[in-house]
Design a protein that fits this description.
Blueprint (H helix, E strand, L loop, with lengths): L7 H20 L4 H19 L4 H8 L7 H8 L1 E5 L12 E8 L2 E8 L5 H6 L7 H16 L4 E7 L6 H5 L2 H14 L4 E10 H5 L6 E5 L3 E3 L3 H8 L6 H8 L3 H7 L4 E3 L10 H19 L4 H13 L8
Parallel strand pairs: 3-4, 4-5, 5-6, 5-7, 6-8
Antiparallel strand pairs: 1-2, 2-3
């Protein structure tokens, strides 16, 4: 497992545990008590470290390469998943994956940004940064959900929309705006879960939901800390200061009323126990879907639009 800079003390203890287990395999000695003692130290260190993470450190956790990604959640939570491809206008964009499936017997349209786990898959999915055709595919899937009265579940994990010249030439801004408009206009429940990095319009294009859930160490921001620092300070080295100023953590988002629920992560982050993290997120998503199922289309649309129109009013005046 890749060790983050602030986890070095934990990594040293875990290395000792691995060494003891390796010795025990060869010598057939009982090391259970010593391993338990060291594991207790590891847990204590993790509680201390993760109980006081800075915003900049949370950025590192949210971007951890071994953190479970969209396709991991789909594989574990969605039964009979049938992927749907293409925007029916230009091309297929694998930065956004989506399709039909069932979450605990509830038929849904599921979609999200996929970053990839290795070099090959990251290139194939463009590191989760969608182009206009990706957002137009998302619109197509949301209209499909509306037509067949299926709730929509989205998983958010992107640094932002792809900033390339070709994407701009094909109408990136318009595609994102239309996607947000579609989120606000369809008459079925939308449950969003921010599982890693929620970056700018690239995230909100499919995150404008009735219920917005956010993992404990995920981040959600209008711009990356590095991008903000390069604009304000002309130096990306000021990214930690930018991260604090941007209020990007789940705790900030809940306090500001941007998200509705924080989903607790396993001790040491989602990357340490991905199966447990995915199961916890699945429970929260199922509860949200159940709560929203009682509302009719007109009520859903009215409440959703009011939710976003009222954002930012807190503290004004």
């Amino acid at each position: 497992m890749q060790t983050l800079e602030f986890e070095k003390s934990v990594a040293e203890l875990e290395a000792k545990i691995d060494e003891l287990r390796h010795i025990a395999d060869g010598e057939r000695v009982n090391i259970a008590d010593e391993v338990a003692r060291l594991q207790e130290k590891v847990d204590k260190q993790l509680r201390h470290i993760y109980g006081r993470l800075t915003p900049a450190q949370k950025v590192q956790v949210a971007r951890h390469p071994e953190r479970p990604h969209c396709l991991d959640y789909i594989a574990a939570l969605v039964e009979d998943f049938t992927p749907l491809a293409g925007d029916r206008a230009f091309a297929e964009d694998q930065a956004i994956v989506g399709g039909l499936g069932r979450i605990k017997d509830q038929a849904c349209v599921i979609m999200g940004q996929e970053r990839g786990h290795d070099t090959e898959s990251r290139i194939r999915h463009n590191f989760g940064m969608a182009k206009p055709e990706g957002y137009r595919k998302a619109q197509r899937l949301m209209h499909l959900a509306d037509r067949f009265s299926l709730p929509v579940v989205t998983f958010i994990d992107t640094a932002g929309a792809f900033p390339g010249v070709d994407a701009e030439a094909r109408g990136q801004a318009e595609a994102i705006a239309r996607s947000i408009e579609t989120c606000l206009s369809i008459g079925v429940p939308i449950v969003t879960c921010i599982i890693g990095e929620g970056g700018s319009g690239g995230a909100i294009a499919i995150a404008t939901g009735d219920r917005v859930l956010m993992l404990e160490h995920a981040i959600y921001s209008v711009i990356s800390p590095e991008g903000c620092a390069s604009i304000l300070w002309r130096n990306a080295a000021h990214a930690p200061e930018a991260a604090a100023a941007l209020k990007i953590t789940a705790q900030d988002m809940l306090q500001l009323g941007i998200v509705d629920l924080i989903i607790q992560e396993p001790l040491g982050g989602a990357h340490r126990k991905p199966e447990r993290m995915i199961a916890g997120a699945g429970e929260a998503i199922s509860r949200a879907l159940e709560e929203l199922s009682a509302l009719d289309s007109k009520t859903l649309i009215a409440q959703r639009q009011a939710k976003y129109l009222n954002m930012g009013k807190k503290g004004i005046g």
